[in-house]
Specification:
Blueprint lengths: L2 E3 L9 E7 L12 E7 L5 E9 L5 E9 L1 H4 L16 E4 L2 E3 L7 H16 L9 E2 L15 E7 L21 E5 H9 L6 H11 L2
Parallel strand pairs: 4-9
Antiparallel strand pairs: 1-2, 2-3, 4-5, 4-7, 5-6, 5-10, 8-9
Helix pairs in contact: 3-4
């Protein structure tokens, strides 16, 4: 990296980071300087949680949550390669949320996952009950350095409470559904569940 050019926009939840780079090639030569734009934010990483249980029929079920995602909902029609559904932007996801600044440690990630589980689907469990679900991933490495950290937890559906939510209008009145895991994975194949992090976690859960 050669230098970082500050954004001319005021600080917000997301910030533009404009950097100038030069690439060093194996023979030691350098490329010409080039500008690369990316997105940055203070709370960079996120946890993804797969809460699950086995029903009386022995099938594993997983809790999903509805969410409205403005960037998906406001895709401009002129950019559509294929027709979009009328439900564009209405997304079914596993509970997930951002890692706070004081949660940047392995134990902190478990605390973050337990907090988001309570906020989004209403299960109050000790952080130690959250178990890793495979390695972390970069969901959009060409645009943001965010990592997703995956966890799973076995829950008792009889002990589900009211989700605390985080105060955001986007979290109010969200629908929550317990879906058989194999059916949820089929919904990803059919494009009904479109959230990539959710598909990754569902498929990893099925492999346990």
């Amino acid at each position: 990296m050669v230098r970082t050019i500050p954004s001319l926009d005021g600080p917000g939840f997301l910030n533009l980071r404009r950097q100038v780079f030069r690439v060093e090639f194996p023979d030691g030569s350098l490329s010409d300087p080039f500008t690369y734009d990316s997105v940055d934010r203070a709370r960079l990483d996120a946890v993804v949680i797969a809460p699950h249980y086995r029903g009386a029929d022995g099938r594993r079920r997983v809790f999903l949550r509805s969410a409205f995602r403005p960037p998906a909902a406001t895709r401009p029609p002129e950019a559509w390669p294929i027709p979009e559904a009328p439900t564009l932007g209405a997304i079914w996801e596993l509970p997930a949320g951002l890692v706070e600044l004081d949660e940047r440690s392995p134990e902190g990630l478990q605390r973050s996952a337990a907090r988001e589980l309570l906020e989004e689907v209403g299960f109050d469990v000790p952080p130690s009950d959250l178990h890793p679900l495979g390695p972390s991933t970069f969901p959009a490495p060409g645009m943001v350095g965010e990592r997703h950290f995956f966890f799973h937890v076995e829950v008792d559906p009889a002990r589900q409470g009211t989700p605390l939510e985080d105060g955001s209008p986007l979290e109010r009145f969200a629908a929550i559904a317990a879906v058989p895991l194999d059916e949820a994975i089929e919904l990803t194949r059919r494009g009904v569940i479109e959230d990539a992090k959710t598909e990754v976690a569902l498929r990893r859960l099925a492999e346990l």
